[in-house]
Amino acid sequence: MSRQYETVIGLEVHVELATKTKIFCSCSTAFGGAPNSHTCPVCTGMPGSLPVLNKQVVEYAAAVGLATNCTITQNCKFDRKNYFYPDNPQNYQISQLYYPICRNGWVEIDTPAGPKKIGIHEIHMEEDAGKLIHDEWEDVSLVDFNRSGVPLIEIVSEPDMRSADEVIAYLDKLRLIIQYLGASDCKLQEGSMRADVNLSVREAGSEKLGTRTEMKNLNSFKAIAHAIDGERERQIELIEMGRPVIQETRRWDDNKEASFAMRSKEDAQDYRYFPEPDLVPVIISDEWLAEIKARQPELRTEKLIRYKKDFDIPDYDAQILTSAKRMADLFEAATAVCGKPKKVSNWLMGETMRLMKEHEMEADELDFSPENLAKLIELVDAGTINNSVAKEVFEKIFLEDVDPDAYVEEHGLKTVNDEGALRSTVEQVIADNPQSVADYRGGKQKALGFLVGQTMKAMKGKADPGMVNRILKELL
Amino acid sequence: MSLMSLTAVELGKKIAAGEVSAVEATKDALAQVKRLDEKYNCYVTVDEEAALREAEAVQQKIASGELTGPLAGVPVAIKDNMCTEGMLTTCSSKILYNFKPTYTAEAVLNLRKAGAVVIGKTNMDEFAMGSTTETSFFGPTKNPWNPEHVPGGSSGGSCAAVAAEECSFALGSDTGGSIRQPSSFCGVTGLKPTYGTVSRYGLIAYGSSLDQIGPICKDVTDCATVLEAIASHDPKDSTSVSRESYDFTAALRDDVKGLRIGIPRDYFGEGLDVEVKEPILKAAKVLEEKGAILEEFDLSLVEYAIPAYYIIASAEASSNLARFDGVKYGYRTQDYNGLHNMYKKSRSEGFGPEVKRRIMLGSFVLSSGYYDAYYLKALKTKALIKQAFDRAFAKYDVILGPAAPTTAPKLGESLSDPIKMYLGDIYTISVNLAGLPGITVPCGLDSRGLPVGLQLIGDCFKEENIIRAAYAFEQSRSYAHCPAAE
Amino acid sequence: MANIISDETIEYVGILAKLELSDEEKEQAKKDMGNMLDYIDMLNGLDTEGVEPMSHVFPVHNVFREDVVTNGDEHEKTLANAPARSENAFKVPKTVE
């Protein structure tokens, strides 16, 4: 019988913080821009330049720590991590090793076996590296320091995860918490959230951890899941063949669906950390910590309770509305404008979800304004447009964020309330469909539905179906 | 007579009074450079055109009343490890042979605001690593008192330029004695302020936790005046300290009555040349006669300062100098095979032997498995040294001693034995570890006619005490011009 | 000499420091480093039990910047000293195989 193995996984998650400026200089963190257009002597390692810490970075890092049940290090310090690479302008990275800002936290994830706590070993602040672009034609790489110095937090988990599903659930949980805090947009594809996976396998029941490898370059949940499965298989194969697993860093190639050792004799991985002499300690007083706590926005659990209580939203709906910060924001903002939470919820749960699925979009990508959704709800409630027109208009709002008032006006979509005009259309429909009229009069109720449909079609959908019904019955 | 024979403050007064112009002063400085610098090699770069342009602009501002300070129009030389926008800044290293910064160091900006005219950049030990200015890629600077001797280091170019009167005053930097020791060897006055007093922004780092910029002048009045101009609380330097007062000239009083001066026995033992010891003790006597209270005491831990310093400074340097890699600025080797080969060849060809020695040592002491034994031990030693000074300053206002165990050695004598050279820093190094201010003032000549410097050390943020003592001592003698300058 | 520096150590430190030493320089470096470490070992004679390591001499803390963009596009300055550039980027030997 083949042996049973357990996979042991720990994660190092890097999150780019949503500050306006870099961690140690006043350069913009905005995406895009020509190479090196967001740079200065500090973030390009010019001789003589010195770092000055962005206060917002400390506040975001502490906020994430508080939201993940960490102990905040009230006297935290920066250290230098020394290694040579062209995207690292000083050839050292300012990071935290000895006194990271947060320690000993946890988050809870849902697993088929019930809720499970994933431990957080520490969270530290550090600077991001620049970007290397590899030239296809010449044997060179090009260095762009626009991302150099963008603030990061690195969240180091305990080796508490046992499967790709748990890893994804953990990442989802972190992403939701951090998005709710507004500390980052956490987009894996764009690199504002990145995960390195530490993985080892051991025989089921064994207490001793196996030798772990670290995998980098994982930029989607899919890649992470593939990499975990691939690396698990690779390590089990080695063990079964009686060969050792080597502790090393490996790069996941999603196209080849395989990982490759990043070994180099020039890469000693001896970072020679020492206290950063150019930065002074950060002392987070009880008062400051209390301020950060007080400013902490409402997180998902609190929102869930409030939606159910204040807006009378069913649990299932509240779960979905709070599953992404963007969704919850839309719900609250549209409700604030129109004061009709149930209707807003219906639009988000129904049409919005349907269109997201159709367009393969994530909630983060929703960019229509809540005001337009609120206006649409008002238009329907006032009877200005009917439900089918509203759906058509909503799709326009969803895709292009059109102003529904203007759009309805411009395209003549208002429900026709002029009884005279409607009556003459109905008369025409009766005249054109003698067979259906006869059927109806002969007791076939279904024929009425057909005639209503024909009238709506002739009115280009702009009639109030109730009124059409009434007039038809009257004339027949 | 050259205007450069005046002190900076004397010259500034003449300029303010309209007796001479800033342009004339700059021309005199440039003439003196032309006459003497081939011999002494004080400068790496002299930018005549820029200096004259700046002098003219400054003169206009003086005439319009916009510039009124004591340094307006006075020519200054800057050590070549401070960034000057558009002007070569080499750290006397091949690796920065062509580096023109795009910004100016805060201390230099402050001087410019005061109207001082930068005439050039002075030679130094490569990246400030050395005690003789012989490790410069651009050749050694020679001591104007005797060109067979070194000027000391690492600010040897700045000190020699002041002594040879190739400028009115200069800026230097001091990591382990680099202002005080060469000032002593060149017979000029140099002050290392309390750590954090002068911004390090734009100072190319050697040992970041120890580096401090300071003035090198003919006398104490100039030092206090220049310090007042360059000191500032700079938000760009996180280690910059906001001081209660930036008034350093108020301490220029010929009054040491009741000033408590401690003389550490540890500074006068074995290793101290008797030709240095005598003028120092004589100077102490002068201060006593003026009413200061002298007392001998044991400072302790003095011998531990050097190993602790070399661990900390080398470790920081190994990291600070990692950025010189042929990617963003400076020297890149011609032929290379791939990235790491490019790094190694550029750095190996670009750095000199002393710099490589310290980078290797610094990388080693930080490497895996050694951190606690070396770096952490050094930081603990530093804490004990600081405590020893704290105890001393509970009893004394000023600590008095030599700046170096000998007068200037001959060229070529020191480099053969690095440890012997390092031992020469024994009286200056612990001051950097503890972040204290120190000043050296000329106090005599040895039998070979080489200057001896008196070092006065103060408690942190107490520059006033050492300025007061140095000024009072200085009143007992006249400034000894270096014969070569005349 | 109490501290004997091996060829491997010099080789390893060379990789960390990105310095390539000639054979002659290596021999000199072994000697220099050994001597220096012997000298440094003097610190072993100092009792530092229970002493808090001091990295900053003054108790300055919490020096911050506000999160406001004040730097503009300075790419020409950034690239002004580049030994090799390609348009707006620094050019280096290829970093991947």
Structural features, described:
The complex is a heterotrimer of chains A (476), B (486) and C (97). Chain A has helices at 55-67, 164-181, 221-240, 286-295, 300-311, 315-321, 325-338, 341-358, 370-381, 387-400, 404-410, 419-432, 434-441, 446-458, 465-475, and strands spanning 5-16, 53-54, 71-72, 75-76, 79-82, 92-95, 102-111, 114-127, 131-134, 140-144, 151-157, 193-203, 213-218, 249-253, 258-261, 274-275, 282-283. Chain A is α+β, with helices and mostly antiparallel strands and 476 residues long. In chain A, the strands form four sheets. Chain A has a nine-stranded mixed beta sheet with strand order 3-7-8-11-1-12-13-14-15. Chain A has a three-stranded antiparallel beta sheet with strand order 6-5-16, with no helix packed on it. By secondary structure, chain B is an alpha/beta fold. Chain B is 38% helix and 13% strand. Chain B has helices at 8-16, 22-40, 48-63, 106-113, 156-163, 180-186, 220-230, 274-289, 302-320, 339-350, 353-366, 372-395, 418-423, 429-433, 463-474; strands at 43-46, 75-79, 117-122, 169-174, 189-192, 212-217, 260-264, 293-297, 398-402, 438-445, 451-458. Chain B has an eleven-stranded mixed beta sheet, with helices on both faces. In chain B, helix 2 packs antiparallel against helix 3 and helix 9 packs across helix 12. Chain B starts with 7 loop residues before the first helix and ends in a 12-residue tail after the last helix. By secondary structure, chain C is α+β, with helices and mostly antiparallel strands. In chain C, strand 2 and strand 3 (89-93) form a beta hairpin. Chain C has a domain at 7-45: Histone, subunit A. Chain C has helices at residues 7-17, 23-40, 75-79, and strands at residues 64-65, 85-86, 89-93. Chain C has three helices and three strands; from the N terminus they run ααβαββ. Chain C has a two-stranded antiparallel ribbon. Classes of the chains: A alpha+beta (476), B alpha/beta (486), C alpha+beta (97). Chains B and C meet through helix 9, helix 10, helix 11, helix 12 and helix 13 of B and helix 1, helix 2 and strand 3 of C. Strand 10 (140-144) of chain A pairs antiparallel with strand 3 (89-93) of chain C.
